[in-house]
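Researcher: Next entry in the queue.
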Amino acid sequence: MLEIFTNLGGGFVNALAPLNFAMILLGLTIGIVAGALPGITMLNAIVLVLPFTYLMGIVPALLLMIGVYCGGVFGGSITGILFNIPGDPMNVPTTWEGYRLNRQGKTQYALGLAIMSSAFGGLVSALVLAFFAPPFARFALGFSTVEFFAVVVFGLASVSVLGQSSMPAALISLFAGMVLGTVGTEAQYGVERFTFGVPFLKTGVDFVTVLIGLFAIGEVLEQLVAVGPAPSAAPSERAVPRLPLLDLWPLRWPLLRGTAVGIAVGGLAGAGATVSSFVSYGLEKQISKRPELFGTGHAGGLVASESSVNGSTGGAMIHLLTLGIPGSAATAVMMGAFLIHGIQPGPLLFTKQPEQVYTIIAGMILANVVMIALGFAAALSFALLMRVPVPILNTFIVVFCFLGAYALRNDLADVWLTMLFGMLGFFMRRYDLPIPPLVMGIILGPMAEQYFLTSMVSHANDLTVFVTRPVSAVVLACALFMVVWPLARRWRRGRSRAYLRP
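Model: Structure for this entry, 502 residues:
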């Protein structure tokens, strides 16, 4: 333990060197801005900065990419809270609660919670990376696609707590999203599904297009046809974020649970922040004493989701640094940076090059601390847009969304799909059909399918493997409980009302 403290102290000294610290600041700025812009994801930003690291040393290069990583997973929450436009799929649960708080005039409170929750989750995960990386990595290494499938199913099972009023409507929305996720060329066998001879559909429906349409365009259409005068933008002073330090204490348990889920799920190679955010949100709603408040602006849901998103960064880095296995798509790009500089990540990295490893870990800790200030400045900058009159702001949002949709694959068809899903989001709002389950289905459905097919190929089509492996069996049992328990509570309430009825 003393050796870890000594190495970490040396790492802080190196990370605070002018060049290294400048790379952290630059990476955070790029990541926050890229994460907040629809169509430009955190992963895209990391890929774009990779060529600029060729002439750098490995430490400045990795610190730049870590800054983009930590800033990017947070950035999408800003536009999600302010404009109902999640910058990345991982920020969708944060948007569900944050935008409702914004509409209730609690914009500064929601932004402050997002900043502090994200920083806390990232900081704790970085400390876990520093002190518990090797044993945690050895445990996660025993996980296969069977366990990954179980975790994703657990995320899908949270649809039972996302259906605010009607479970059948929530299930219809979920399965519709899963069907949309099957469109395109299947990765395992190369079979085209639901393409109808249209070349564009061979590559599938990009979930970012769906998010932009359902949330942003659908919200704009809803405001355009709303009865009565258009709502005025929130006053600028109410949109200025504040850091609710005292308000976090009543939310300490959602904060800690979200961080723990983020670290645990992020530590599963390939799971990533998106799965952890959905799992954390669903788990928090399931154990809440007031689950009916979720989806109406519940601070606990926002805190749990946002802390798990940045909490997953440390878990993903554990795999990269200790095992040489990328824990997410972002860390896969970082592994490319290691290999470009002739360094092979893995267990020997901690013994052969401890100075560089602990400098990177210290840089990750610093990045999450500095992110509070930069996140505050970024939120303030975006919040100034709340002063713009609503018609002008809506026009700006629509134009920017179409530009973001086109930038995804440089294809005009994505713009048309954005318009289509915008109209779908509008009608779903009109007829009170839940949107979150559809989003969950299109994001997690393909992941569940891929893990299931890979598991079947690896275990000779033996379905019992999902219940004979202990971890998978426990997670699937929890998923089943998550579905059955709300149904049982509704059945008991129905029987009680029938019994009391004269």
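Model: The chain has a mean pLDDT of 80.
Researcher: Noted, moving on.
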